[in-house]
Specification:
This protein has 431 residues and is α+β, with helices and mostly antiparallel strands. It folds into 3 domains: 138 residues, Beta-Lactamase (2-Layer Sandwich), CATH 3.30.450; 104 residues, Helix Hairpins, CATH 1.10.287; 148 residues, 2-Layer Sandwich (Heat Shock Protein 90), CATH 3.30.565.10. Helices cover 52% and strands 18% of the residues. The chain has 7 helices and 11 strands.
Length: 431
């Protein structure tokens, strides 16, 4: 059930960490209790030995509990070698445990006091304490397991909620995730999912419009060809009439080829989104494109003005997609700008990243229309109406933003903008 899951890893790590913590704490507790008891017993034997060595009676110790003198043994022993310190050791005789202290008594004849006291009850008490600690550890370990499982369930509730919502969605019932219902730690994830849902909604919407528009764009010229051929075939006509009908048919076929070619560009763009991102200097790329279109603008009797700031801007992206966007901006600007007028391409760095703008002196746009919908034409110029649709898809794939607005400086025309984020999502792998 938990195979290769975050929840399983969390439970295992929490149980292991808690078990280690319980073991360490219990060990320190037991050793502290044991040391405290032994230190107390050692101090007690030291008092007895000092009192005897100073020719005092044991009863002068003023110990209120007379049981403290029980199981106490005192004798004088003689050693062959002098010992300057105090020795304390533990021994067992006939299942009885004794704590023995060797204390200097008369160093002239190498005599020492051997003070012994039975600590069998103390050892049993320590054993009982150890058993209780082990039992408490077992119970605590079980509680830790229950706590870990319960906590893991609580932590995956938001993930399960998101999973259920996403699994029940289809292209007709896609709804954004309500951020307010998520824990604070999942808000960024919810925002990312909502951004992805918005892209999916736009993609589904534009794909439907693309299919409908494609059918309409191809149906109309086919109907023209059929009608023209039917009229021509009703009766015999002069050769010039047949030539005219064939010329109309050829022009209509050319229009259909343009539509098909643009549809193929959509397929190429989706393939370009899978290309490996490259690290390029965007300013150098813009200079190259500007040089190409400067010749075209001059040929059409228009002037292309260039102003690129900063001198360099490195970004990691798919070059084909960037080329498609900039090329569409410049083609539209030159198409709608009258002869002897100006087109401007410029860039500058802002708080987001690099902003690229293409400004023309054309007829402007209807800002209330969905400019990025497929087959949406603006102005009085010919075209299929797929250029901005392709540009928008390319910008979304780059993690950039695209916008088309009318100029606000009192001059007729449009401003096409591409905002490249300095923190692009497509990053080259580093070795």
């Amino acid at each position: 059930m938990f195979s290769n899951s975050i929840r399983r890893n969390f439970i295992v790590q929490l149980i292991i960490a808690s078990a280690i913590l319980i073991f360490i704490f219990s060990s320190f507790l037991y050793f502290y209790v044991e040391k405290s008891i032994y230190d107390e017993k050692r101090e007690e034997l030291m008092v007895y030995a000092k009192n005897i060595a100073n020719n005092k009676s044991i009863t002068e110790l003023f110990v209120e509990d007379s049981s403290a003198y029980l199981n106490l043994s005192v004798e004088v022993i003689y050693l062959q070698h002098e010992r300057t310190g105090v020795d304390l050791y533990e021994g067992t005789i006939n299942e009885h445990t004794f704590l023995t202290l060797i204390y200097p008594f008369n160093l002239d004849n190498l005599s020492y006091l051997k003070v012994s006291k039975e600590i069998t009850p103390t050892k049993k008490l320590l054993s009982k304490i150890l058993r209780y600690i082990i039992m408490i550890n077992i119970v605590g370990f079980g509680l830790v397991i229950i706590y870990a499982i319960t906590l893991s369930k609580m932590l995956v509730i938001p993930i399960n909620t998101l999973t259920r919502k996403l699994s029940n969605m289809n292209e007709h019932l896609i709804k954004p995730v309500i951020i307010e219902e998520l824990p604070q730690e999942f808000e960024s994830l919810g925002e990312t999912i909502n951004h992805l849902i918005a892209r999916i909604q736009n993609y589904v919407k534009y794909q439907k419009e693309l299919f409908i528009g494609t059918a309409h764009e191809l149906k109309t010229p086919l109907a023209v060809i059929k009608l023209k051929n039917q009229v021509t075939l009703i009766k015999k006509r002069e050769a010039e009439t047949y030539i005219e009908a064939l010329e109309v048919t050829n022009r209509t076929v050319d229009e259909m080829n343009v539509v098909v070619s643009n549809i193929l560009n959509i397929g190429r763009q989706e393939g370009a989104q899978l290309h490996k991102p490259e690290e390029i200097d965007v300013i150098a790329f813009l200079n190259q494109k500007a040089d190409d279109f400067t010749l075209l603008a001059t040929h059409e009797g228009k002037e292309l003005h260039i102003d690129f700031q900063p001198k360099a801007f490195m970004a990691t992206l798919q070059v084909d997609l960037l080329n498609q966007i900039i090329q569409n901006f410049l083609q539209n600007a030159l198409k709608f700008t009258p002869k002897d007028q100006n087109v401007y391409i410029e860039s500058y760095q802002d708080d987001v990243g690099l902003l690229i703008q293409v400004i023309d002196e054309g007829c402007g746009i209807d800002e209330t229309a969905d400019l990025f919908a497929p087959f949406n034409r603006q102005g009085n110029k010919s075209g299929v109406g797929l250029g901005l649709f392709l540009a928008k898809n390319g910008a979304d794939a780059l993690g950039a933003k695209i916008s088309i607005k009318n100029r606000q400086d009192g001059i007729s025309g449009t401003v096409a903008s591409l905002q490249i984020n300095s923190k692009l999502s497509c990053v080259l792998p580093r070795k």
